[in-house]
Amino acid sequence: MAKKIFKMKSTSTNVRYKKAKQRGTHFLLTALSRLAPNVTKEILLKRFFKPLSYALTPLERQYLEKGTSFHIHVHEKKIRCWKWGHGPAILFVHGWNGRGVNFAYFYKALIDAGYSVIAYDAPAHGYSDGQFTNYFELSDTVRAFFDPSHGFDIQGLIAYSMGASAVINCISKEKPSIDAVLIAPALKLKELLFNHFNQHGVPKIVYQSLVAEMERYYGYDVHQDNPYVLAKTIASKMLIVHDKDDRTIPYMDSKILSEKTDNVDLHTTEGLGHKRILRDKAVVDFITRYIFNGQLRRDDELMKNITLIDRKQKGKKILCEG
Question: Which domains does the chain have, with CATH numbers?
Fold first, then answer.
């Protein structure tokens, strides 16, 4: 009982501290935005739009060393890219704080099957230029690979988290007829971003001003170009792979979208969370099989037959919905 009471008091104290911190931040940023708007903007960019870096794994380093390096330019930033193999290209699009080689577990099967694999570090990520970036710029980066002047033969897209958001934006604008797999997509990105601002006490008028400036510069609208809205306008088939235990991006957003949209199939996993899903062998096998079978839209019987994939690893299972 004493432990329970202590835990309740500790939780209550933490809540009060968090709310006090939010009020303090709100007050300071409100005052600062009036006195020094450019300083306020810089603070928000550093806090919310500057990706973190991390060390590559041995497998990721190995692929970078063996890949053919090249670059493209997006908004005057040099975007570092790599290519492996020969043949029709599968483009991989990483998430926030990620790297192009985060999909290393997918590459071998695709290369062995006669595909080439293209991956890149998004703006302000890894070896690419920039300190800050955002959803709009990430979207323009994906769209750059469909510029005919580059000559990329992109036949498939596999994207993760916020990278999947950018892919949805790209498909809605460029309308390519290709296979698309979205892993743990951030569908309600506007809501996630605005909630993040609110949780940290950023005044609404302050973050709305910054977002409006980005909208004007990149030519997008945070409401109309919200991935959840755009996904409903896309005619081509898309596969979403999402884990029920994802604590970063809500699984229910993917489930509801798949139930309300004919062009979206959902493959549900359990026990993998947000990050381990990219390294799970059963997930990798399922997605590569999806690509190999022409997105499964040309083989409805295969989708019907894939009702359950047993994962003996730690007694977990992957369920397939579709």
Answer: 6-320 (3.40.50.1820)
